[in-house]
From TrEMBL:
Family designation: Belongs to the binding-protein-dependent transport system permease family.
Keyword flag Transport: yes
Residue intervals passing through the bilayer: 12-35, 67-93, 105-127, 139-157, 178-200, 236-257
Organism of this sequence: Kribbella karoonensis
Domain ABC transmembrane type-1: 68-257
Location relative to the cell: Cell membrane
Keyword Membrane: yes
CDD domains: TM_PBP2 (cd06261)
Keywords: Cell membrane, Membrane, Transmembrane, Transmembrane helix, Transport
Protein name, UniProt field: Carbohydrate ABC transporter permease
Length: 272
């Protein structure tokens, strides 16, 4: 491959810088406003005007830490269980042979075309009949698994040579042992990608938690911010402080798993 010309390199760097400013600019503004003590919009970049008063007020509200705890518990539970369930299903669709495999997989993919609003009422009625309303079970169980995760992991597992599985079968390994000792270690990268997508989706979920969590104690952070009238909802600094707190877990998750995320995306592109 020929290296880009200097002019092309400069143009690409400028485009990347401009894109970074466009995407990071609003986040920087939110952080700066959250550090102001006034009730009006103040974009002062001088550190001498910054204060953590808004964060103290927000965290001093007894409901906000509860909202954060609910979001963390639900996000971690949904992420862990979704990765396990989707990986098991992907392994079955990619490497096992059973009647109706291709048909059932096609039907699974077809469900991706259904909007969530189309299944919202039936899912709520089922959850209500099972006594899941206003509970962690109701927030977690309906969000488990999904066709996107099964499809992505299946595409990756299909790239694993069948000779590895055949050799393990000849040695007397069961399908469960093959899954645990061969499939799982080779799928760390796509699992990390799925975990990030799932956690972010669960953390930002609004419609289902709004419907299933009927008490203030069971609301997640996104629902709590939008529905609860507290002392900081009329304060721009307080609102932005809550927004910054809601961004921290996702930013931390990406920083920790960014290596696996990037490699997983690239591996998925190559192995598709």
């Amino acid at each position: 491959m020929t290296r880009p010309r200097p002019v092309a390199q400069v143009a690409m760097h400028l485009a990347a810088t401009l894109a970074s400013v466009v995407f990071a600019g609003p986040i920087l503004i939110v952080v700066v406003v959250s550090l102001t003590s006034t009730t009006v919009l103040d974009l002062s970049l001088s550190p001498s005007h910054w204060t953590f008063l808004n964060y103290r007020q927000v965290l001093g509200d007894p409901l906000v830490p509860r909202y954060i705890l609910n979001s963390v518990v639900v996000g971690l539970a949904v992420t862990a269980l979704t990765v396990v369930i989707d990986l098991l299903a992907a392994f079955a669709y990619a490497k096992l042979r059973f009647p109706g495999r291709d048909l059932s997989f096609g039907l699974l993919l077809a469900t991706m075309m259904l909007p969530f609003s189309a299944t919202l009422v039936p899912v709520y009625l089922i959850a209500s009949k099972l006594g899941m309303v206003d509970s962690y079970t109701g927030l977690i169980v309906p969000a488990l698994a999904g066709p996107f995760g099964v499809f992505m992991l299946r595409q990756f597992i299909r790239g694993i040579p069948d000779t590895l599985l055949d050799a393990a079968r000849i040695d007397g390994a069961s399908y469960l042992r093959i899954f645990a000792n061969i499939i799982v270690p080779l799928c760390y990268q796509p699992m990390a990608v799925l975990a990030i997508f799932t956690f972010v989706g669960s953390w930002n979920s609004f419609l289902w938690p709004l419907l299933i969590a009927q008490s203030e104690e069971m609301r997640t952070l996104t629902v709590g911010i939008a529905t609860t009238n507290t002392q900081f909802t009329q304060n721009i600094g307080g609102i932005t402080a809550v927004a910054v707190l809601s961004l921290l877990p996702m930013a931390l998750l990406f920083v920790v798993f960014q290596r696996y995320f990037i490699r997983g995306v690239l591996a998925g592109a190559v192995k598709a």
